[in-house]
Specification:
There is one protein chain. This protein has 488 residues and is an alpha+beta fold. The protein folds into 4 domains: 3-132; 141-242, Beta-Lactamase (2-Layer Sandwich), CATH 3.30.450; 249-317, no CATH class; 338-484, Heat Shock Protein 90, CATH 3.30.565. The chain has 15 helices and 14 strands. The strands form 4 sheets. It has a 5-stranded antiparallel sheet, with helices on both faces. A 5-stranded mixed sheet has the order 9-11-12-14-13. A two-stranded antiparallel ribbon has the order 1-2. Strand 11 (401-409) and strand 12 form a beta hairpin. The two termini are 72 Å apart.
């Protein structure tokens, strides 16, 4: 016999044995007849002592199990219930021991009123039941609580289409929170009931439009399951999900997208118009100013020549600015052709285009890594590398060293352009990618403040990211950007 059955056997057999000796008068002296029953005094025998041990052991064991339950339980209500029961049990044990054992051993009179502690025990248990719903949460009650906390409406129909039950969300969906339950359920549209009754197969997320009791139009997702027993239909479970707000938001989003597409087309058209309409008068002004400079340089004083030089330089910068804006708008709005792009070949072409500037700067260009082939637009990728390498050449000291490299990343590639140039202060690391942002004086470094903005837009168009790292002024910079291997 295993240990557990043996313990159970002893727990039951010991009371039986003790009761037999009780009947023989070995435990108590029996018995004085009273109006409330029989009363007796304890015998000073081994069997009486055995009863004391059994009585105390049972109490200590119960106390141990309750304390262990409290220590392991996380539910506050259950812990409070256990504490009430433990306190009541301890009180009854102490009072019962005094009145039923100690006083009787000493042959003291114990009035019947001393048994009032049993009423205290009953009241404590009743209090725990009422306060913390002890022993009162049935599975059906739990199911009802769960169903009524659902956000979706749930209706149970019988096989004839009559509503058997419905949760609170159904009333909310049909705008009848303050109406009687029966009145609310009468507004369920007839077409909806017919659809449910005619469904031989489950319906999953079918979109329906209903009119509520307050004449509000609502869009719902209808799901129906057939309840059957032995191939006989017994009823239907219907779930209604209110997607009215989602539908409205979706329609507004579609309208916004249409407006955005239209706006982008208008912006692209404006960019092309601006490139011609603004460039033409600017070209005319530049031509005449340069002609004036050429013909009348010897006839004008130094101040006049300076004014003409300023005008020529300003027109030149304006021309570059218009070109930059045009390119920026094209990157944002224009659809591009996606093809396989060999990054290694693009870098060679960019270095060839920048050959004169590289030679003038006496720059050393290093390449590191195996440059891959990716899906993208050749013009975009070429412009990206050209702007970044040109930026490193522009903001450099004498004999710049520029390293162009790549590392494989999950689903894409991390490219970088590292230089030993003038560096960037921490507070400018984000601003330099904003359009028209210049952090260095134009007198020292040329530029329109658009080049890095174009780089950022190109990278974002490919769902990538771009950033710069620098330890500070005079310590060089490293521009990083991530491009996916395949652009969709």
């Amino acid at each position: 016999m295993s240990r557990s059955p043996m313990i159970v056997f002893l727990l039951f057999i010991i009371p039986v044995v003790l009761y037999m000796f009780f009947l023989k008068g070995e435990i108590t002296k029996c018995c004085d007849k009273k109006y409330f029953g029989y009363a007796g005094a304890w015998q000073m025998t081994i069997w009486a002592n055995l009863f004391y041990v059994y009585y105390v052991s049972f109490f200590v064991l119960d106390l141990y199990f309750i304390l262990r339950y409290i220590r392991k339980e996380n539910n506050k209500d259950k812990i409070n219930t256990a504490v009430i029961l433990m306190t009541t049990m301890f009180f009854c044990f102490v009072v019962g021991t005094i009145t039923s054992i100690v006083l009787k051993i000493k042959n003291q009179y114990v009035p019947i009123e001393a048994n009032v502690y049993l009423i205290f025990f009953a009241i404590s248990v009743f209090y725990a039941m009422q306060k913390y719903e002890f022993l009162s949460i049935a599975p059906s009650m739990a199911a009802d609580l769960i169903i009524n906390t659902m956000n979706d409406g749930l209706i149970l129909f019988d096989k004839k289409g009559n509503v058997v039950s419905a949760n609170y969300s159904v009333h909310k969906i049909f705008d009848c929170d303050n109406e009687e339950k029966e009145d609310c359920l009468r507004v369920i549209p007839e077409f909806l009931i017919k659809k449910i009754l005619s469904s031989q197969q489950p319906i999953v997320n079918e979109e329906v439009v209903i009119t509520t009791i307050k004449d509000n139009k609502k869009t719902l997702l209808l799901s129906v399951s057939v309840l059957s027993y032995k191939k006989e239909v017994r009823g239907y479970v219907c779930i209604l999900k209110d997607i009215t707000d989602l539908k409205i938001a979706k329609n507004e989003l579609e309208e916004t997208i249409v407006k955005l597409i239209k706006s982008n087309k208008e912006l692209e058209q404006f960019a092309y118009v601006a490139s011609h309409d603004l460039k033409e008068p600017l070209r005319m002004v530049t031509s005449y100013v340069q002609l004036l400079q050429k013909r009348y340089t010897d006839k004008l004083d130094s101040d006049a020549n300076d004014f003409i030089n300023f005008a020529v330089e300003g027109a030149k910068r304006m021309y570059e600015l218009i070109d930059g804006l045009l390119e920026y708008s094209r990157v944002i709005t224009k659809e591009v052709e996606i093809e396989e792009v060999n990054i290694g070949e693009i870098i060679e072409e960019v270095l060839f285009m920048l050959k004169i500037k590289i030679e003038q700067k006496h720059a050393l260009i290093k390449k590191k890594g195996n440059f891959p082939k990716i899906k993208g637009n050749k013009i975009h990728i070429s412009r990206l590398f050209q702007n970044l390498i040109d930026n490193s050449l522009k903001f450099c000291k004498e004999k710049p060293v520029i390293e162009v490299g790549v590392e494989k990343k999950d689903g894409g590639y991390l490219f970088y352009i590292r230089d030993n140039g003038i560096g960037i202060r921490k507070e400018f690391k984000e601003r330099i990618f904003d359009i028209f942002q210049r952090i260095n004086p134009r007198e020292k470094y040329e530029g329109t403040g658009i080049g890095l903005s174009i780089c950022k837009k190109i990278v974002e168009k490919y769902k990538g990211s771009i950033w710069v790292e620098s330890e500070g002024e005079g310590k060089g910079s490293t521009f990083y950007f991530i491009l996916p291997e395949k652009f969709k």
